[in-house]
Known about the structure:
- The two termini are 20 Å apart.
- The protein is mainly alpha-helical.
- Helix content is 56%, strand content 0%.
Amino acid sequence: xxxxTKKKSQKQLDELCYEVDIFIxxxxxxxxxNERYKFNTLILKDDPKxxxxxxxxxxxxxxxxxxxxxxxxxxKSGKDEVTVCDRAHLDKGYFSNIRNSxxxxxxxxxxxxLCLAMKLNIEEARxxxxxxxHGLSNSEKSDxxxxxxxxxxxxxxxxxxxxLEKLCDTVLEKLS
Length: 176
């Protein structure tokens, strides 16, 4: 599973795990419903690209459906479908499913994989995940690891899987 993670040495991967673990400790909310934690919510880094994203979506008729947004972000990324599917570890025909059904909704792991494969920033990823009925929770360590990757422009799925397995005893394919 981690054979493709050749870009970083074991030491670099362990340092990445350490950084993600600190990020999780800082942002993790243990008791979602507890009155004590009601103001501790996900506060994203100020992203100067937020306005740019809103303008981009407005220029493209503000699509809300996952299929429309996914195709729009694919075009914006400049990547072809085969490359994105390969990076996301999805079947080559995945985009035909998206194109052929306006009501197609991916699993959370598929949506996250697409975000990483298309190299979306955190704002773009939040929009795409929301359109698929998913989000990133501040009370799920795996979601915070994904958030760390997106906020820091880290888009290697194999590296994310390594971090998820080390810190959360899961991998992207098992996210729910």
